[in-house]
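Summarise this fold before class:
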Amino acid sequence: MNKEERIIESAIEVFLEKGIEKATVSEIVKKAEIAQGTFYLYFDSKLSVMPKIAEVMVEKMLEELSQNVDGETIEEEIKSVIDTIFNITKEYKSLTTLIYSGLTQTQYVGDWEKIYAPLYDFIEQLLIPRKNNGEIRETVNTAFISKILIGSIESLAEQMYLYDEASEENVIEYKEELFTFILKGLK
């Protein structure tokens, strides 16, 4: 792990342990086992680490999607995308909360679309062949729909796991409704 990666991992641990407000650069560099000056070679402040933390989460999501989404039909792929995003949101509840609260406290919230671009591209690359072979309607704007899909799926997953703490039975029902809603929009 290079120094920047150590800083990011240490920042995640310190932020999760102490909270963003109480965490200090000193604690981050101590955990990363680097000099404080080294931290400032990579980041301006503790909050400037937030976009990199968000990138780590997007990379985790892409890794999981790449492993899990390989359906023969659009239905199988959409179901896999929904399941994967819900599972990641559930598994990384604290990190997801950290990212949202951290980015919204900074000027980096405007970087959100840039950070999410690889994720949107992944979904768009699933949709393009499905559009070309007639599985989804030819008028679908795949770039727009990829953002709508990620936004809808992620928002519902966060609502279930971060805000409502819904029962697993409710989560399953919501996922089924979301799946039906998405398919109707694509067809």
Q: What stands out?
A: The longest helix spans residues 142-164. The mean pLDDT is 91.
